[in-house]
Structure formats: structure tokens, C-alpha cells
Amino acid sequence: MREDDPGTMLAEQVGRLLAERSGAATLRAVERGEWPAALWEALEGLGLPLLLVPEAMGGAGLGWRAAGPVFQALGRHGAPAPMGETILAAALLAAAGIAPPPGPLSLTANGGERVPWGRHVRHVACCDGETVALCDAAGVTWAPGANLAGEPRDSAPPGGVVRSAAPVPERFGGEAAAAALALLRACQMAGALAAALDLAVEHAGTRRQFGRPIGRFQAVQQQLAVLAGEAAAAQVAADRACRAADRHGLAGAAFEIGCAKVVAGEAAGAGAAIAHQVLGAIGFTEEHPLHHLTRRLWSWREEAGTERFWAARIGREVQAVGGAALWPFLTARDEDDDTTP
Amino acid sequence: MVGLRFEPRDTPPGSAALRREVRAFLAEHGRGWTPEVRGRSWMGFDRAFSRAVGARGWIGMTWPRRYGGHERSAMERYVVLEEMLAAGAPVGAHWIGDRQSGPLLLRFGTEAQRMRLLPAIARGEAAFCIGLSEPDSGSDLASLRTRAERVPGGGWRLNGRKIWTSFAHLCDWMIALVRTAPAERDGPRHAGLSQFLVDLRLPGITIRPIRELTGEEGFNEVTFDDVPLPEDALIGREGEGWAQATSELAFERSGPDRILSSYPLLAAAAEAAADPVPIGRMVARLATLRAMSLSVAGMLEDGRSPAVEAALVKDIGNAFEQAVPERVRDLLDVADAPEGLRRLHAYVTQVAPTFSLRGGTREILRGIIARELGLR
Ligand SMILES: Cc1cc2nc3c(=O)[nH]c(=O)nc-3n(C[C@H](O)[C@H](O)[C@H](O)COP(=O)(O)OP(=O)(O)OC[C@H]3O[C@@H](n4cnc5c(N)ncnc54)[C@H](O)[C@@H]3O)c2cc1C
């Protein structure tokens, strides 16, 4: 991604804003169930919600390649507000020709179970097969819930108020919401892993034992190198899935999105373990910020399809293709065959 | 903010057509390859095959035409390489010349050296080996002791010993890193090293193949006993050997040969497997590693020197390649698998330990990454 990419520039703005205005205190408040109103307004002020909405509908008209770095920047800071969900919901609604309403949004693909940030958002994009409906969220009696990171995951009783409903275009597909959420979580995990690496490296440079920084011990260095590798793999897998979504549509990019969710999920498990090992006991405290990242990593890998879920899908697809045709299948995913004889 | 950035890179337009050509070629030549040949991958040596690859213009693809090259892009070359590896082709007779000896000569060689050797490499006729490791110098390469001394009246005299030299017993040339000036006490250890082009037919050279645990002969011990090297055997500048040798490391380390060594086994097992989950995990990993390796290839093509990125891709690529035979045991009962698959699995199981040794060990690569993280 080049410096002048809109996605990179936006991601830098998001990163700066969150570095200044968010942090452990905000994440703690969110985990207590508070709504980060000021932060939400600041994020909204960057023009993020309509990132993926076509210009004709008043949006920024950008693609998944631009959204990916923004999702990663949100993940790096623990995603203290449902901006990723809002961007996805607005994209799905707009794709179906429904004007996305202002304010925080969320989305669901399973009829309102464990909706991210449900109690805090104004509307939810309810996806059911090929249809997306704009549903009211305010006024709903949410059954509050949370993932293990304390992020709101709330359930709504059936039969809420539907403002409008329309079919999702083919490019988005019948599993658009699930695929979009998997892509978002993969990107967020890549960001959170980069932040966990930062924390662990910083700690290794300052914590001293046996008369020197623990980062001078080769055993610690080697573990951090592994964490750096996992973080890089997650980032590449996430970027690749975003590019595939631009190229083939969300529906056509299920393979790459699945790969990203698997690789980022594996990296989340391995990476969180290393970060905690390097941080020692301090990393297990409520006071130290590491857990805001690692608990989210453990949560996000469970959401929108575990590694096992996506790997089974990929595996079945690969088995259907067959061993001899697997290599041509893999290379053709990234190449347009412009010269078919 | 630490961590490395891998920018996405596409293969060039026309790749699909190029792949078709290579696949047709491999289908024709690969009919008789046994599971062991496919499992050996780029550690397999077959001169006739390499000549056929050269005749198709797939060696020295990026080099200038006047040196027998084909002036194609680095990414087109990448496409050809990964097709060869995916098929488990025995590319060893031209792999080293194409991957590092040729590029080294192109960069540091004299015009005469280039004219003499590059066209022969590109035809698949001149086979090269790498003379780095010595009995007492493995990871600590700079401690090497093989030495070349100037001979009054011109030329050099070479003495010492190299070891683990892949294919030396079958090759024509070695590019050796040797000492031309003693390491000074307290001076930089990398000073005083130079690279030489060694014609393996010269007198004073003894090549002793070393049997591998598979029972095959792949690597060698090469002894130099007063070997007379001509004046023009020096490559580049005297004393610059370390910098010259390491300048190619990013090329050497990030290629598809660091992620695909066990691909033929993965493909064979995918079909026979009962459980799709481990296959899905491996394929997800492989697809990601390919993207990372392509990203590094793109940085190289842009003239950058992504040494750390290359080390990182090699490290996680090797870990993946190495895990494949173990994962496959989860996929299916290997003991009951069809014969071809069983043999392929048995072979790859035996050679997999080398993946994280050759070309820089896992620990050395992780040390390079840790330095980038500011830890050392
Ligand atoms: C199949 C095969 C083909 C090869 N072909 C060639 C060839 O063609 N030409 C050539 O020159 N060489 C070749 N090699 C040699 C290869 O480059 C060396 O094996 C490698 O550099 C490691 O050196 P070593 O084997 O002496 O191990 P050592 O350096 O003795 O290392 C043994 C172990 O100790 C670890 N270790 C060493 N130093 C450190 C450190 N500072 N910190 C932490 N751990 C450390 C290593 O990581 C390794 O795990 C080949 C090797 C193999 C296996």
C-alpha cells in the first residue's frame, strides 16, 4: 500500500486519534458497559461510517483495500467503539439500495443473537440470506451480553421494527454479513497483534533481570521473533482478503477471507501466549494494558467463524478441487487469466 | 511501532499463460518422477532436465540478452520457479546458478567472467555449488579458515576445506568464500574475506561425497590442497567477500523454495484426507506465505533490500514446510496410505529437518528479526 493510499492516510488519522483520545481507561469504561460518546463523535468526524458507501449515495466510495488498514488501526487500539461494525452495516445497506442512517450501526447474520454493541447502536443491518433489512435498535429490549473481553454482544427478542428491506446484490452474496464480520475481525486481530508485539518489545527493553534487560536473553529474543512473524502473517492474510473482496466481491472472496480468519486466529493464539510469557506476572494484572489486547484476540478468533469453522470450509473446497488441481486453483485465485486460448 | 510491512504484490499480466506453458512442459518431463524425486524437490540434480529448462528460456530469465538471459521480469521468474517447485521438479543442477551464482557474477563479476559463464548457466549447462560452510564454521561463518594467498607473478593458491557443499561432486564450479587476509585482533571479523570462482576440475581439489541419512549422496566435503587459481578467479573486490556474499541473501532466502519444499506431499495428502480441517489450515497458511514471499519479491524488484523481511518469510516458511509431514499424520493413517503417498511422506519426513538448517538456521534467522526489533 502506498503512502498516498486513502486507506493508509485514513488509518493514520484513526491511529493518531485513538492514541490521543482512547487508551486503557476508555477500554475499561467500555468493558463496564459505558458508551464512549465523545470518542464516537471524534471518529465519526473523520468521515469513517460511509467509507464503503458509493459516492452516488453520499459515501466515500472507497473499497475494502482502504477499509482494511482502518480496521487494523481500530484493532491496534482495542476497537473501543463499533466503527468497524458501522462501516460494514452501512456498506451492506447501501449495496441493497437502503440509505444508511446516521449514528452507530451494527449487523447480524443470525437473527439478532450476540449482536456486537447492540444496546449502544441506533440501527442494525439484519441479514438473512439474500436480504438485508434496516432494523431499529433503539427501543429494543436488549438482553445484554459480553464476550470474554467485555465487549457488548447483546441479543434482541425476535420481531423488532423493520424500517426497510431489500435484496443484497450478488457480489455481496447470501453470507455477506458473516463474511464481512470475519474480514473485520481478521483485520482487527492483525492490528491487535502488532500492538501486542509493541508492548512486549518495549517491556523486554526495559524490564531488567540478572543485571540486564530481559530482551538481551536469546530465549526471549527468539520468542519475540516468532511473535513478529505471526503478526506479519496475520497482516498479510488480512490485506490479501481485502484485495480479494475488491476483486471478486465479498461472496467471491470467501476463500481468502477464510484464510485470513484462520491465519489471524492461529496468530492470535500463538502471539498472545508469547506476549504474556514475555510480560511475566505484570501482564496478568488488570492494571497492565496487555489484556485489553489479548482478551480481544481470544474473543475475535471465536467470532465470525473459528479457525476450525473456516479451515473446514477451505479444506472441503480444496478436497473438491482435488490434489492435482490444487496448485492451479491456488494460483488462479490471484490472477486474471487474460489470455485463455 | 515495530514490525515489518509487507505490501501486496501481484504476479504480472500474462502469468496465467506462462504457467500453462510451464505446466505442459512439466507434465511431459515429469512422467517418470518417483515419489522420492518429487519429495527431494530442489535438492534433486538432473542435468538433462536442467538443459531442457534452459532450452525453454527459463534459466537466467531476468538477465540481459547479451549474457544469454531473457530480459524478463523478476515476477515472471517467480512464476516459473513456483511452478517447478509445486511439481517437485529436480531443479538442483541449475537452481544455485540461477538463484545466486549468476546474479552474483552479474553484479560483481568482470565482463570476461560474465561472458564466459552466464550463457552456460542459462543454457542449463554450467552447474554451480556454494562454498561457504566449513568443518568449524557453520552459523559462525565469518570464522572460516580456508585461505587464498597471492602467488608471485599472478594468481592465487587455495588451501583449506569446505563441507556440506551440495552437489559439489556433480558440479562444474564453486563460488567459495575464503580468507585473503588474516582477521586482525579486535578488527571486524568480516574483513579480509574474498569470493573466488573455483573450477572444480583444477588439480589439488578432492571431492568426497558424504552419505545423507536417506542413503543418498547430496552434499560433500571439498578439500583444497595448493589449488592454483588463476588471477581472474577473484570475484569482485579483494576483501569485499562478506558484503558481496550477504548482498544476495534476500534473494536466496525469500524465494518460493522456502515455502514449497513439501508442497507435493501436501497436494497428495489433500485428496486422500478424511478430515478437511488440517488441510484447510495448511492451505490457509500456504496461501498467506505465498503472498508474503511475493511481497518480498516485489520489494527486490523495486531495488530495495528487504533482508529482514526475507529472513522472516524464510523462518515461518520453513516452519510450515517442516510441519507438513507431521500434520499429514493427523489427516490420514499414513501407515495405510497408498504406496505413492506413503513413500512421499516417508521421504519428506526424512529431509524436513534440513529445511530450517540450510540457508541460515532458524535460530540465526530469528536473531536477525530480533535485531530489527531493537533487542540486540
Ligand atoms: C541439506 C543441506 C545442504 C547444505 N548445503 C550447503 C551448501 O551447498 N553449501 C554450504 O556452504 N553449506 C551448506 N549447508 C550447510 C548449512 O549452511 C549449515 O548447516 C548451516 O549454516 C548451519 O551450520 P552447522 O550445520 O555447522 O550448524 P551449527 O552452526 O553448528 O549450529 C548447530 C545448532 O546450533 C544453533 N546455533 C549456532 N549458533 C547459534 C547462536 N549464535 N545462537 C543460537 N543458536 C545457535 C544453530 O541454529 C543450530 O540449531 C547445507 C546444509 C544442509 C543440511
From TrEMBL, chain A:
This is Acyl-CoA dehydrogenase. Its cofactor is FAD. Pfam families: Acyl-CoA_dh_1 (PF00441), Acyl-CoA_dh_N (PF02771). The keyword Flavoprotein applies. Keywords: FAD, Flavoprotein, Oxidoreductase. InterPro entries: AcylCo_DH-like_C, AcylCo_DH/oxidase_C, AcylCoA_DH/ox_N, AcylCoA_DH/ox_N_sf, AcylCoA_DH/oxidase_NM_dom_sf. GO terms for molecular function: acyl-CoA dehydrogenase activity; flavin adenine dinucleotide binding. Belongs to the acyl-CoA dehydrogenase family. The lineage of its organism: Bacteria, Pseudomonadati, Pseudomonadota, Alphaproteobacteria, Acetobacterales. It comes from Caldovatus sediminis. Residues 9-97 form the Acyl-CoA dehydrogenase/oxidase N-terminal domain. Residues 184-317 form the Acyl-CoA dehydrogenase/oxidase C-terminal domain.
TrEMBL record, chain B:
Residues 17-125 form the Acyl-CoA dehydrogenase/oxidase N-terminal domain. One of its GO terms (cellular component) is plasma membrane. The keyword RNA-binding does not apply. Residues 129-227 form the Acyl-CoA oxidase/dehydrogenase middle domain. One of its GO terms (molecular function) is flavin adenine dinucleotide binding. Its cofactor is FAD. Keywords: FAD, Flavoprotein, Oxidoreductase. This is Acyl-CoA dehydrogenase.
